[in-house]
Request: fold
Amino acid sequence: MATTFRDIKAEIRGRITDGSWKPGALLPGELELAERYGCARATVNRAMRELAEEGLLERKRKAGTRVRATPLREARFEIPAVQDEIEALGAVYRYRLISCAEVAAPGWLRVRLDLAEGARALRVVCVHDADGAPYQAEDRWISLTALPEARTMDFANVGPGAWLLETVPYSDVEISFGAVGADGTQAGLLGCAEGVALFQAERATWWQGQAITYVRLAFRPGYRMTTRY
Amino acid sequence: MATTFRDIKAEIRGRITDGSWKPGALLPGELELAERYGCARATVNRAMRELAEEGLLERKRKAGTRVRATPLREARFEIPAVQDEIEALGAVYRYRLISCAEVAAPGWLRVRLDLAEGARALRVVCVHDADGAPYQAEDRWISLTALPEARTMDFANVGPGAWLLETVPYSDVEISFGAVGADGTQAGLLGCAEGVALFQAERATWWQGQAITYVRLAFRPGYRMTTRY
DNA sequence: CAGTGGTCTAGACCACCGG
DNA sequence: CGGTGGTCTAGACCACTGT
Reply:
């Protein structure tokens, strides 16, 4: 009878969800559970530690382990590249460049990315289609302070997102989601009426403390982002 | 010179983000790294295992450990109770019940929650205010099959969300986010014009395979959900 | 088949913090 | 202060899977 840390996790999770151990309740110590399950303390430790990471338990030295009084609800969303997202739907992906120009970084962007006055940026506007219909409109600003080589890039066939992904693969990201009424540009790009409600993501990316890019992604009307937890 | 699993994580993470180890690159085996850092294999194992969970590494038996070719971007959002969310902003929370009535579950809800024909539900509509201004409009359906005791509850002062949280604290949830134009009811409850873009969450909750509740939460215009990763 | 990661063990020392 | 969780060790066996 093998007692793995997964068995113990399942056992404890079961007791919590079925109500045997109510929110706030104190669980037995690791040593006692190890004896009860006939395994090493390290095994119990891993089980409980992971359940704590998942938000079901609260652990404190000396105080012991308790069922979280207020369930910590945490949802995880995968943020795939647009092309992957579209192809995962079984649709044909197409990329269309609308415009690409070097400009002086506007004030709001300098504030947002902490850029110096006079900083310059590359602004790229493009659309991602799924089966020929607009799926996502992208309005991106790339800091030419951090990535001067972006000037020489040709974004006619490769999206700026894909290029950045291979140039700066691992970076720090701040992302936020909201709803906006489509402005004239977005309405044109997505083929909808002005004012229609759009799901919009905003993402700022940093690498080693330096701002890389800021992007606004407006999704086609009706888009939903879904997950379980 | 203490080498903890955190040190090793930081070390490896650094090599990945600074580009020394590029996407797809093969890392040394656990045994070699253990020797290199002068620690036990278990310590290296924990460091690498956690980095894999975080999406930076890909591990396969026999094949070894590699830097993920395509960074797995995963964002985590906390989903607090509305009251906590509002009070965390430093605002005063207020709850207002708009209506509460027992009804036959409409077809779309029966499909959504897998309810039997003729199933009955409690429909509760309410508003959550922050500093006196509407923050979130809630339109909730509670399955009376699963929770007949909801019939006798008085939701005049306690929100249905808070009651459910203490009645069924740990459940399975499916959640999705999108943008909608405010309908007449939502416009009235949130004090905005019809058609204004609203950020909307939909949540279906299950407990031991049985549907508990379905809720639509429409946030005040301009609301954004933010995180880092 | 053989090499890699996955997991368990028995024991140890330590840091934190509640009583 | 002393009990609890946090972490490390040295060793072992096993499961998967590429070659």
